[in-house]
């Protein structure tokens, strides 16, 4: 993706983008209501949450990405369509606590997260226990993680990591597009690409339970 320095300026002033934080964001003020928040970490082109936002007006969607160029398209698209229930964070998931109070988010989507295949990069995986600890803080009790990936090793790692760190696993499939979840599935940009190359897609849900 080509570096676009002017995006910094655009995002700093953009009403849909949380760019730099002096204080925690007041999401009720941001959206103008207290509807549940669903957050996609590593949102990229955001085809997935844009569609969800169009179809679910009683949920607020936030797309987060650490690459500003990735957010250019969805931010423009959301503005053009006048979607009132979507916002974006230009930032790294490592800093999630700067953006959310405790018990603020109902669902986290991890769609085709970078698998970080080398062992020395294991801590960068978005399902590493350090990230799960952050998610547990911002999720409500009973909050969920929904994950899709084409990478078997990342999927296996995620199943183990979630189950060992306080998430109850459910609705798991090793072949999403030939499963009962296919009908309601909304495809992401990467999903379309991997599917066209004949790859299978793995899916899981984890529910956060304190007891
Ligand atoms: C492979 S793309 C997937 C994009 C989209 N979810 C999809 O399925 O089409 C992964 C995205 O995650 C973003 N990303 C990776 N690590 C991140 C992090 N720690 N915090 C925020 N975004 C991250 C990358 O910049 C990239 O846009």
Automatic annotation (TrEMBL):
Pfam family, any one: Methyltransf_4
EC number of this enzyme: 2.1.1.33
Keyword Isomerase part of the UniProt annotation: no
Family that this chain belongs to: Belongs to the class I-like SAM-binding methyltransferase superfamily. TrmB family.
Chain's role: Catalyzes the formation of N(7)-methylguanine at position 46 (m7G46) in tRNA.
Enzyme class label: transferase
PANTHER family noted in UniProt: 3-DEOXY-D-MANNO-OCTULOSONIC-ACID TRANSFERASE/TRNA GUANINE-N 7 - -METHYLTRANSFERASE, PENTACOTRIPEPTIDE-REPEAT REGION OF PRORP DOMAIN-CONTAINING PROTEIN
GO molecular function, one term: tRNA (guanine(46)-N7)-methyltransferase activity
PROSITE patterns the UniProt entry points to: SAM_MT_TRMB
Keyword field: Methyltransferase, S-adenosyl-L-methionine, Transferase, tRNA processing
Alphabetical list of NCBIfam families matching this protein: PRK00121.2-2, tRNA (guanosine(46)-N7)-methyltransferase TrmB
Binding site for S-adenosyl-L-methionine: 40, 65, 92, 114
A single GO cellular-component term on record: tRNA methyltransferase complex
Catalytic function, reaction form: guanosine(46) in tRNA + S-adenosyl-L-methionine = N(7)-methylguanosine(46) in tRNA + S-adenosyl-L-homocysteine
Pathway: tRNA modification; N(7)-methylguanine-tRNA biosynthesis
Sites where the protein binds substrate: 118, 150, 188-191
Protein name: tRNA (guanine-N(7)-)-methyltransferase
Organism encoding this protein: Halothermothrix orenii (strain H 168 / OCM 544 / DSM 9562)
The UniProt record lists the keyword Transferase: yes
